[in-house]
Amino acid sequence: MDNPRPEKNRTGWLEHLEAESWSAELIISGAAIYGSFQLPWLLTKLINYSLLNFSDDILEIMYLVFTYLTFTISILMVNFVMHFVLRSLWVGLIGLSSVFPQGINEESETFSKSYLQQLKHDFGDLRGYNEKIDRVCSIIFAFSFSFAMIFLSIAVLVLAIAGIAYLIHQLNQNIPINLVFFSILGLVLLPGILNGLLNHKKFRDKAWVQKIHYPILFKAVSRVIFHVFFEPVYYINSIFITNFKKSQYSLRVLAYMALVLPVFAVVFIQSNAIFANKDYYFNYANREDRFYPIHYEDQLGESQLIQNPTIPSVQIEGSGLNLFLPLPMREETRLYQKYGAYSNDPQLSASENTLQSRAWFKEQAGKYFHIEVNGKKYTPSLRGYNHRNAYEYGFLTFIPASLCKEGENVIYIQSEYQVEGKKRECYLPFWYSNR
Q: Which helix H or strand E contains 96, and what residues bound it?
């Protein structure tokens, strides 16, 4: 049997690896900055797909998923930029130390002797300053992955519970998805709350607490919450928590989150995640007294999600204009709730029932949308259409010139989508000229 490697050699190898780890950190951090700045684009794609294909009850749950994913991305972006900047500074200081190994020159005549001594006392030698930056870089690198894994774990957990809630709802339509979801989530989080309470000095040394505190309330439940990330998350965080004072660690976390929150806000708003909130969706761009770029196709960005009725431009010339009425799944669900679903006719073939179903759906859509042009009701012919921007499904119709007047016009649209008994409204002002 081979003899195990001596402890001294193993320790020396580890120390050498730690000393040389900065180069790997710098390479990984640089690549991670590039990768993390691509993540908001992928998040937006995921959110746009969800907004078009999920109903309100599912989107309410997905809103939590989007929030935690946005935190994960924001943490990675902030941490890797901070780490790269500080590690680059550290490399620069290493080079500087080879030129000026003594650091601050106390023999300089630039300042008084007292001034130089105080300067040296506050900043120390160059080696000590380098070591300080090196420690900060190493902490940031571990901290970034730890917090990112925490938020990613919670997002995956929420998504898994949402899937279970959806399956239960499919088995029994009378049970609301949200009720099932929050009930399961509460059961999962309850042991974590108890774990925090039992860690109080008043309880933690009691025999019955010690039997359940670590093995059940901590280890077993945490494996469910953090699943594949359990070991790295708790190992890294336990190192931080046990090596910093509780108040010191809490203040650093709060200060760090204050740094992350502005980035989170920007990523969250640009990703369209806010539209998962039905109140925001209901009230967005619904004022009569202003123009919204989202209502005009020539002002839309490439692949921009619409979710609002649109016309070609704020200035219309010619014989009339097209009007696009989007119908995301949240509104389609409302349509079926109000008008029911098409029932197949047993006397018809499958293809004939398909045609009848499409005709029925088109008829119900005509009832679902109430349209007025300059205060006069207009009942147009609707055609199914997928908009080129985000392949968003809805209906395309035409507003003839006979309904328009020279100068300012307003198209008013009301759908049966409701929040607190109020129907969703939209105003599309435009200027028209028949020349």
A: helix 56-99
For residue 292, the SS3 value is coil
- Tokens (6 digits) for 372: 């007025």
| Residue 382 pLDDT > 90 | yes
Q: Which of 50, 51, 69 is nearest to 280 (CA)?
A: 51
Is the CA virtual torsion 237, 242, 243, 247 positive or negative?
positive
73, 145, 180, 213, 235 from 245: Cα distances, Å: 28, 21, 39, 22, 17
Element holding 399 (H helix, E strand): strand 393-400
In the numeric block, the tokens 């309904």 are attached to 403
Average pLDDT of the segment spanning 27-39: 79
**Element spanning 25, H or E:** helix 7-36
Question: What does the block give as tokens for 82?
Answer: 């901070």
Give me the residue spans of the domains in the chain: 7-276, 278-433
Task: Report the SS3 class of residue 224.
Answer: helix
* Span 149-206, pLDDT tens digits: 888 888 888 889 888 988 998 888 888 888 888 898 888 878 777 776 776 677 766 7
What span, in angstroms and rounded, lies between the C-alpha atoms of 418 and 414?
10
Q: What is the mean predicted confidence (pLDDT) over 379-395?
A: 92
**What pTM does this model have?**
0.78
How many Cβ atoms sit within 10 Å of the Cβ of residue 156? Answer: 18
Confidence band for 24, pLDDT divided at 50, 70 and 90: low
pLDDT interval class at 295 (50, 70, 90): very high
Quick: pLDDT tens for 113-153.
888 888 888 877 777 788 888 888 888 878 878 888 888 88
| Alpha helices per DSSP H over 213-277 | 221-226, 230-243, 246-270
Q: How distant is the alpha carbon of residue 416 from its chain centre?
A: 29
- How many other CB atoms sit within 10 Å of the CB of residue 415? 21
Q: For residue 184, which of 155, 164, 156, 154 has the smallest C-alpha distance?
A: 164
Residue 338, helix vs strand vs coil:
helix
CB 402, CB 419: distance < 8 Å: no
Helix (H) or strand (E) holding 108, with range, is none
**Of 432, 430, 431, nearest in space to 292 by CA:** 430
Q: Where are the beta strands (DSSP E) in 161-249?
A: none
User: Please, what's the b/e burial string for 95-118 (b: 16 or more CB within 10 A of its CB; e: otherwise)?
Assistant: eebeeeeebbeeeeeeeeeeebee
Q: Could you give the count of Cα atoms lying within 13 Å of 334 in the half-sphere of its Cβ?
A: 18
